[in-house]
Amino acid sequence: MSEKKVIMTIENVRIKEYDSMNVTVERYENVFIPRTKETIQKWVFKGYSKSILSALLFIQRKELLIDREQIKNLNDFVKHVEQSNIRLMEVMKE
Q1: Which of 12, 19, 68, 71 to pair with 46, CA 20 to 30 A apart?
Q2: What is the distance between the terminal CA atoms of the chain, rounded to a whole angstrom?
Q3: Confidence (pTM)
Q4: Is residue 89 scored above 70 in pLDDT?
């Protein structure tokens, strides 16, 4: 099976074509492998969307651009949400 085309990459999140009717959303994150007891970084499937626009909304709603390890309080969270929204708006203008 051939590798699917990456349509768009936004920081650590990417949108890939799945078939003629759908796209997938994946996030590059740390994954713990219990068998080898190590942590690796890889693309992790987050969900399907019917279009690129709905995939961008999915990224916003699931807060996939926000790094939870950097958030210490509510103000940090609000700042990260604002930055995430600004980044998504920049992508939509392109």
Answers
A1: 71
A2: 31
A3: 0.83
A4: yes
